[in-house]
């Protein structure tokens, strides 16, 4: 248990005075851990209250999505509106709490030592109050009851904080009174103050499977002024400089043509949340919640989702991402995926939704938010489409992250500043191990930059169709600059 029990056995007579023993406060959010750490694995809260009588109520509890890899022989199944360990609903009476749908579990929080009842009415499991203790819970002395089940399992409840331990989960925090381990507030996720700076690079491309590649991207820098919190977002005033471009290539019978369009724009507002940031609802999610993207760079609103996962990283930061989902489909080798591509028409249905996983990744997969920083990265592919949205630099509360470029650097990427054309064509794009420069000028110099503006390679061009080996570069987004031509973004995907 995550609390220190003082072995002070109390008499039933002592317990009879001034007791509450409510298991859930409908205005709180209860944070549980299933691994003995400060990582929140489950958050339980009431989403709706029905009045059943003078002193009886029905609480609707928040639900999660989960994956079933045994529900189908051809695909994994995404199950929606699934209960957590306290079921979907709770009927609350003066002395009885009935957790149900789909199970049927009864707790009598005011029962005394030695009292026994049927806990699981479907499986005929009984419960008995076996001890009453005092413990330090969130720094306060608290009366506890140990409820032993006939299966050998146990439940611990407290007079003030309700369910402390149940089904392998321990209560580690409560949002409301703000005790213990908490999910961060919106202001804690985006703690930007006047004078802070963020800089992002975005990129997206898609391939029609035959001839056409097209894409667009941007580099932008925002210097903060004031912020106005809203529902799920904060609108900041300040100064934004954005350099955007779009490109198209068409390959037919070995001939490639392309076009680029660069422009610089300025704005005095920026939104930390939807619709600016992709997967922004992750930052206000609870573990296990099905989260849809509000602003994908290449997809529509409803066609991809992820199951929210909360972690504490090696730096002690609270992070949000997508649950890692290994799978094997059709005899293929298993790999990890995090973003779910499914039929949007079934999303609100109670029916199981078959899906395939189109992205691979690590613990928090292709997208991560961190409290104190905001969005750190989106880096994912969906079949013939790819997108990223990456924090390349920031100054937050005096601390510098990555590289923050000057305003002149961003402005200087534009065609208006340089007055040059996009005569050099990169193909294939995305690439794997090499890129080909078409219509290049011999003896001119090319340079390859990463997203932080660091030069990774510089070489003289030898022919009009220069072949460049890029197998030493990691998958991701890069910029190629050739003398006399606009910078161009290309992707490496393997």
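^ Assign residues to that structure.
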């Amino acid at each position: 248990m995550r609390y220190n029990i003082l072995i002070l056995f109390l008499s039933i007579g002592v317990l009879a005075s001034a007791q509450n023993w409510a298991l859930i406060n409908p205005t709180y959010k209860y944070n549980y851990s299933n691994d003995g750490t400060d990582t929140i694995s489950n958050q339980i809260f009431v989403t709706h209250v029905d009045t059943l009588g003078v002193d009886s109520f029905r609480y609707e509890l928040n639900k999660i999505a989960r994956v079933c890899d045994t529900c189908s022989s051809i695909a994994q199944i995404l199950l929606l509106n699934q209960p957590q360990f306290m079921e979907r609903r709770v009927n609350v009476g003066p002395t009885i709490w009935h957790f149900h749908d789909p199970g049927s579990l009864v707790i009598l929080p005011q029962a005394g030592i030695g009292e026994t009842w049927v806990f699981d009415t479907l499986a005929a499991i009984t419960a008995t109050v076996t001890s009453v203790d005092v413990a330090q819970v969130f720094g306060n002395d608290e009366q506890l009851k140990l409820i032993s089940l006939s299966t050998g399992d146990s439940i611990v409840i407290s007079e003030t904080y309700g369910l402390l331990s149940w089904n392998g989960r321990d209560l580690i925090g409560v949002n409301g009174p703000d005790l213990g381990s908490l999910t961060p507030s919106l202001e804690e996720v985006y703690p930007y103050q006047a004078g802070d700076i963020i800089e992002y690079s975005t990129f997206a491309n898609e391939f029609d499977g035959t001839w056409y590649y097209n894409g667009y991207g941007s580099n932008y820098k925002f210097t903060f002024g004031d912020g106005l919190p809203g529902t799920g977002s904060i609108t900041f005033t300040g100064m934004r400089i954005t350099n955007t471009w779009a490109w198209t290539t068409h390959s037919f019978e070995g001939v490639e043509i392309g076009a680029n369009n660069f422009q610089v724009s300025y704005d005095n507002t920026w939104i930390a949340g939807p619709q600016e940031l992709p997967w922004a609802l992750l930052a206000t999610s609870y573990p296990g919640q099905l989260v849809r993207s509000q602003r994908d760079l290449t997809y529509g609103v409803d066609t991809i989702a992820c199951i929210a996962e909360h972690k504490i990283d090696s730096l002690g930061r609270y992070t949000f991402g997508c649950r890692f989902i290994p799978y094997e489909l059709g005899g293929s080798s298993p790999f990890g995926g995090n973003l779910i591509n499914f039929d949007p028409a079934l999303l609100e249905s109670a029916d199981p939704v078959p899906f395939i996983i189109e992205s691979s990744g690590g613990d928090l997969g292709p997208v991560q938010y961190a409290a104190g920083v905001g969005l750190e990265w989106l880096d994912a592919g969906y079949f013939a489409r790819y997108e990223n949205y990456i924090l390349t630099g920031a100054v937050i509360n005096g601390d510098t992250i990555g590289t923050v470029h000057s305003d002149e650097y961003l402005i200087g990427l534009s065609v208006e500043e340089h007055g040059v054309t996009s005569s050099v064509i990169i193909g294939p794009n995305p690439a794997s191990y090499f890129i080909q420069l078409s219509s290049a000028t011999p003896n001119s110099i090319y340079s390859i930059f990463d997203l932080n503006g660091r030069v990774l390679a510089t070489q003289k061009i030898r022919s009009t169709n220069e072949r460049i080996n890029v197998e030493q570069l990691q998958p991701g987004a890069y910029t190629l600059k050739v003398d006399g031509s606009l910078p161009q973004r290309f992707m490496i995907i393997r």
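DSSP finds four helices and 38 strands in the chain.
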